[in-house]
Amino acid sequence: MKISALIAEFNPFHRGHKLLVDSMKQESDGVIAVMSGNFVQRGECAVFEKSERAIAAVKNGVDLVLELPSVYALSSAEGFAKGGVQTLLSCGVVNDLWFGSECGDIEKLSRCADVLKEETPFFCEKLSKNLKKGLSFPAARQKALEEIIPDGNILSEPNNILAVEYIKEIKKSEADIIPRTITRMGSGYNNTDTNNEIISASGIRKLLSEGETAEGHMLYDYAGSPVFMSDFDVIVAARLKAISKEELCLLPDCNEEIASRLKEASSFNTFDEIVSAAICKRYTQSRLRRILCNMITGNSFKEVPAPTYIRLLAFNEKGGEILKEMKSTASLPIASRGAVLKNDEIFNFECRCTDIYNLVCGENGGMEFDRTVTVM
User: Which helix (H) or strand (E) holds 68?
Assistant: First the structure.
């Protein structure tokens, strides 16, 4: 079988996702998605619980949904890509990785990935100089890249950034996986305009947060009410008031300056107010939001670890055939039950993430150990 894959959040699943999956199915025998759990890479909670989002994906053409553990989902673009690509590589069946990008040009993306992978002294010098000027890391890296190749300007777009990181990780891992991109259609990643035929996940979440209907855009009738970071206001504010600056510095992607800024912002009582008070030119909003999410979930991984398991969330009949093949090709254990992972550090962090998420949903803890795989 020819198996195609994508790394996604489906937060929630929308028409743009459907276009990508449909394109993949035209050129493959099966589609695997590695999907983030109850917290996502922009530094916020998922709008719907991960099992529901996995079911929505299978209902709309994905054959097998695997989990991207929260240690990767709550990481930078580089960490997010590392977790996704290495999980797919460990399956032993994936032929190509598909992703949307603003530029839609695999050659441009690949050239950027080559420069970032090599990290030549010249590039590192330019990057360091830009950071000393007070630029954020993404802006400093883009500017350094532009001084080496003209294509560097594509890193101003979020999907291009992730695409480059996917390709870079494939090259670093020497994975026998072919990267493929299609031009992102409809509203941009951060565009909340709700007037387009294909609106972004951000636009859908905006509608939901305002109590509006997103019928026709989500392509699935989700159970339960949508969840937003405002639901975590008390948890975030209480934890930030109690935690020390030294403890903050131990969190992934945090440093002494960020810790100081967050502690100064601890007089505020909502997630958005805290982020707004702490943000500056040097540190992106997403980075601050991820640090706060890692704070309330107790992320103790200072460095991004390598995957230790493959977690199943949902699959259909074709997905079952893929799983049958994976049993002889996978380089990591395939887990359908949480109990078999009880001694795994990455899974234990996942349990904390789910328990915190469920706290605002009025659900009891311990769900990860009882979670069942959805077979459709």
Answer: strand 64-68
The Cα–Cα gap between 8 and 31 comes to 12
Looking at the chain, the number of H-run helices and the number of E-run strands are 17, 10
Token output for 9: 């959040």
CA distance 153 to 132: 20
What residue type is assigned to position 92 of the chain? G
Asked if the bond preceding 12 is cis, omega within 30° of 0, the reply is yes
Cβ count near 177 (within 10 Å): 21
DSSP state letter for 27: T
Class of residue 132 by CB neighbours under 10 A (exposed 0-12, middle 13-18, buried 19+): exposed
Q: Which residue has the tokens 């998420």?
A: 357
- Provide CB contacts within 8 A for 296, sequence distance 6+: 232, 235, 236, 239, 356
Phi then psi dihedrals of residue 45, to 5 deg: -75, 155
- Beta carbons within 8 Å of 346's beta carbon, 6+ residues apart: 69, 71, 305, 307, 308, 309
Q: How far, in whole angstroms, is CA 365 from its chain's centroid?
A: 23
What radius of gyration, in Å, describes the C-alpha atoms of the chain?
Answer: 20
What is d(CA 201, CA 35) in angstroms, rounded to the nearest whole number? Answer: 14
DSSP string, 136-159: -HHHHHHHHHHTT-GGGGGGGSHH
The answer to whether 160 and 107 are in contact (CB under 8 A) is no
Backbone angles phi, psi at 37, to 5 degrees: -85, -125
Mean pLDDT by 10 residues, the chain (376 residues): 97 93 96 98 97 97 98 97 98 97 95 94 94 93 93 92 97 95 67 64 92 85 94 98 97 96 98 97 95 97 96 98 98 94 96 97 92 91
Indicate the SS3 state at residue 239.
helix
| DSSP line for 302-330 | SSPPPP--EEEEEE-HHHHHHHHHHHHH-
What are the φ and ψ backbone dihedral angles of 98, each rounded to 5 degrees?
Answer: -105, 145
The label of the residue with tokens 């489906």 reads: 10
C-alpha dihedral sign at 361, 47, 352, 276: negative
pTM of the entire structure?
0.95
